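hey all, quick one before standup. I had two proteins in the batch that finished overnight and I want to keep them in one place so we stop losing track of which output belongs to which input. First protein below, input sequence then structure tokens straight from the run.
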Amino acid sequence: MMSFAKWGNALYSGEKSYGIISARKKWLSLGLVLIAVSIAFIGIRGMNPSIEFIGGSQFTLSQLSNTSQEPAEKVLEQHGLTQGTKITQLGSSGLRIQGPEVSVEEIAKLRTDLATAYQVSPNEVDATKIGPSWGAGVTSKAVKSLVIFLTLVGTLMAIYFRSWPMSVAALFALAHDMFITAGFFALIQAEVSPATVIGFLTILAYSLYDTVVVFDRVRELTGDLTKQNEYTFAELVNLAVNQTLVRSINTSVVALLPVGAILFIGALLLGAGTLIDISLALFVGMIAGTLSSVFIAPATLVLIEEKRKRTSQHTATVLAARGEKEITVVAPKAKDIFVEPAKATEEEEFAPDVIPGRHLGQSAQPKGKVKKRKKK
């Protein structure tokens, strides 16, 4: 069985290759379907906004010996608060109780009754009243931040890569990640809090980074596309995706391990409810970002480039030289790609061949001049 390192080397050299770009229409169709399904979930089920967005009253109890939710439910029922309430366990000794907005006097009574029900001091009950105007301000700023971010990203990528198709493909991949993450939250009705919004913006940066890594390799391989007639644009993009595949996997694993630890160990086992909103957004978004940078963004780039005159003419020339009519992605060897090696210096040209892990013997060691001692 091939080791992971050998597998990565084989992908980079072109000895082993996966026809990811061959199925580019399937990947793009799948991405569009997932976006449509996510939009349907958002429209039908709707999002589950937290109290910060809709306003209400919140009570946080700490240092509890009993974290059962039954006493809190009885207190809320006594005050006529049976609709729109939510009780969440925080860690191993805390509770968070959220309900509709009530008066200041009612908040004071609820605080006292909750303290009595759980046999703690009223000082251990933190009461907060949040107005809906605060959530509206957060939403407005989040939308503005998203628009500014996407505008700057599209402009900078078009300037950096000197290619508007790469910019469009990257933005489509970002939209794919956002809709899938938001659709997943709507599907399971996970709470959307300001921390979730921060998580959404974070996964945009992560997805963009992974896409830029792939596109940077694409630019290196296709920079002198028309100077050769052996490989098409699609085939070189496929090589770039395969060459960066191991890096994408390693980056994703390293990023998902701490986020997964927070989500599964911290939130599920320890009951740290306050961490679910941001960690779940990061976990889902990072997985979607990795997949989009490998499958969606390169596929979109190739489909756009194939419509451009320069690329389509070059593809037709390559196919005519092969005697083919349709594009069949061939896996080019990395050594066959037109990259001129750097010229060796005079010292390197006459240096002995060094084999890693093997000693060349004493004869290969530099010899110094032996000084003769003068006789007294």
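OK second protein, same deal, sequence then tokens:
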Amino acid sequence: MRYSLKSISKEYLATCQSRGYTEKTMTNKIFYIKKIIAYLNTKRGIQYADQVTTEDLNSYIYLRKTDGKNTAQSIKCIYVCLHAFFNWMTSPKNNYLKTNPLDPIGSPKVPKKIIYAFSTDEVRRMINAYGKTTFTGMRNRCMISMMADTGMRAIEIRRIRLSNIRNDIIFVLGKGNKERVVPNSPSLKRTVVQYERVKKDYVKHLMFPTKDYYFLNYRGEQLTHTGTDWMRSTQPPASSGDILNL
């Protein structure tokens, strides 16, 4: 029995979701898979998985490389996403394909760039760019301070719940749902106390604020990945031990 790419993609995405992939990862998977299926359907006349060839996928990758809309890193992301999709089809459990048609193409290379860490002064200025009197300002100060002091990722900041903040430690749910503990330094504690004071006063005026998550948007809901996207370039300095001695 033959299955259409659309029906297989629905099964694959449901499987990914059940495995606990992040919201951002799922958004990317849905976007890239939808694009490749539309291309195969409209440009190559392909409806079924067993019709897809290496030539078809190579043509698609080449199109994305030459359309002027994608960076080398974006092409890499497209390849990785599609490779995982077709690889899933070849697993013995699914057996939609015998081999992955992307394998002969190989993963695109991305030029290596030196990533320079922010200096202590730069991190301090980022923190001080936000005021202490408004909810969003104090929230942003606290989030940047927490990332800089602990090395936490934006997604980890977004997942923090009230019960995760303890006196001297913070419980973190990281990538792949792996748990770890990071220290809550005296300097960070001060910022946390300031945020909690402003937050308490702010949420009492909201109708139905989310009570479980620590960092909220202006509506009192859990922050989304787009809500924290402005922080994606933020990283802790090489030496972060003294950055919060403000």
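Flagging for whoever picks this up: The radius of gyration is 22 Å. The first strand starts at residue 169 and ends at 173.
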